[in-house]
Amino acid sequence: MSNKKQDQLNDMKKDNDGKALTTNNGVKVSEDENTLTVGERGPSLLEDFHFREKIMHFDHERIPERIVHARGFGAHGEFQVYEDLSEYTSADFLTQPNKTTPVFVRFSTVQGSKGSPDTVRDVRGFATKFYTDEGIFDLVGNDIPVFFIQDAIKFPDLIHAVKPEPHNEMPQGGSAHDTFWDFFAQNPESTHTTMWVMSDRGIPKNFRQVEGFGVHTFRLVNREGQAHFVKFHWKPVQGLESLVWDEAQILSGKDIDFHRKDLYESIEKGDFPEWELALQIIRPEQEFDFDFDILDPTKIWPEDQVPVQKVGKMTLNRNVSNVFDETEQATFHPGHIVPGIDFTNDPLLQGRLFSYTDTQISRLGGPNFNQIPINRPVNEVHNNQRDAMHQMNVHKGQVAYHKNALNNNDPHTTPKEEGGYEHYQEKVDGHKIQKRSESFKDYYSQPKLYLNSLNEDEYNHMVQGFSFEIGMCKSIMVKQNAVNQLNKVDRKLAEEVAQNIGVTVPETNEEVQSESKDSQLTMEKFNIPLPGHSVAVLINGDISAETLKSYAKVFTANKLNYAFVGKHPKSISEDYGITETFNTAHPTLFDSLIVLSDDSDINPSIEEFAELSYKHNKPLVFNQHAAEKLKNAKLDLYGSGVFISDEPDTIVKAFERARYWDR
């Protein structure tokens, strides 16, 4: 982060060490434990100004949570472009390879309230604020490249449908209920995104291992005024991983903060997550060369047709100092752009350009939300906007209008050639109508493309996702209509889901007849590096400190997170002591399992731990004694991803695959 941005944030977070307690007006306080009363047992007095100020502030501490994306967590970092992209854009942060740009990223779920679990099946928000020298650029995206609707006028309908049902305020944090699936069946444009959410993409393993997408089509504009269509991507260096559904459900109870804790602890340990910024670029003359409309937010640009170019890297390297001050008060807006980036006529994007400012005024009490430190640009702000709620600046001078002669017409405008923003001059001609473009009305080809691109395991997980979600609906009509929609994508998928939820498949096969694939859509294409994964080492009986030390050495060398788990804590050393017990640890909280045992009878908790880890397809390593003791457990000791060895470095071999789906 630049020193300028860091100083801005530090200005608001003064250290209290050695400081006297004062009121908000600066008066030193002599008593903060008892209110002013008449005698020791008499009535409290309203003249106790410190009490009144303190309780008043507490009564108003909470601001309205976001209507969507309420459950969020953020971190600071930096971005650097690999090479000069001035062929495409004049944006300073994309044309200066020697420049580091501060960023702030907020990850979130969409449906749930601020107190909902992290691991629900949902779209994840992935919003990035670039503090460029030319102003703020907000890339406000998701971890899924498409969206449920094509026009912003339908956004309230979508959210009303997916949110808890108003008559009973249930369910919280998920889409497994009648109103969402009724919306799905009645609005075929939502089919593509719903396919993604019902796949493994809907239950990511953590924030560090998600892709990010700008969703919309934007324009890059160079200094000569030449424009290219662009889609923005974030490609995780850590690879792409998901939870299994049973695991995600258990985690909602075991650790409601599972995702945010993972991100926070990774950064605290110095395991900084990284993403590469990647661009898909289409020349203006190619706009109509595809069998999809490039402005349709429910469509991807298949990477096999429009290759992705990796152009820079973002690293998250600092946690927030205060979640409310920074994460909760951060305001993102797709309309925050800088010279060299412009909009297109995507109707969903156009609507968002209004909506985001409107909601910030409601949440943060007025139009001056951009003066909150987390939202301030690093460059200076000068304009004639004045007053309003929560004005933090003291403006000086007589003049607050443009044009003026009294102040030499300052603040003055800046020509495009000197860095002033100028919109791309697109010629637009047409009648005022309320009608969707015919080029937007292919609702099923890309869902079929996505389905065809999945491997067998991913397909089976999608069937399970649809079966659980639609199966939770109460209305037979809603279930039937949802299956009828799936029948327009893929007959086999519709038949399997219908059988699982107890409805029939339409007599007519209406599926899209296509074998088209995109090789970049399956999650198996991602290499998953070893560092950052976690290991639970279960101790049964008396295992020597030297043995634990040898395992700890391997874990540390390979940057694996680990915990030694036993019946009781045992402080051998801070590096290899038994810090967790069978009461505090759980297999869903770890990526792999090692069981070390002597000749003692196996603890039943270890057997349960091993069986659930096996069920969730995780790598398992047992020493010889442990394997003998677990021979009657509900797992195949010689199955895929199960290793019997007394060597500590066996875990490295076991992690050649993060999940053994072929069990």
From TrEMBL:
Gene3D superfamilies: 1.20.1370.20, 3.40.50.880, Catalase core domain
Stretches for region Disordered: 1-25
Basic and acidic residues: compositionally biased ranges: 1-18
SMART domains: Catalase
Domain of life the protein comes from: Bacteria
Cofactor: heme
Sequence ranges assigned to domain Catalase core in this UniProt record: 22-410
UniProt GO molecular function: catalase activity
Matches recorded under Pfam families: Catalase, Catalase-rel, Catalase_C
Swiss-Prot/TrEMBL keywords: Heme, Hydrogen peroxide, Iron, Metal-binding, Oxidoreductase, Peroxidase
Enzymatic class: oxidoreductase
EC number assigned by the record: 1.11.1.6
Catalytic activity entry: 2 H2O2 = O2 + 2 H2O
Similarity comment: Belongs to the catalase family. HPII subfamily.
Function text: Decomposes hydrogen peroxide into water and oxygen; serves to protect cells from the toxic effects of hydrogen peroxide.
UniProt protein name: Catalase
Organism of this sequence: Mammaliicoccus vitulinus
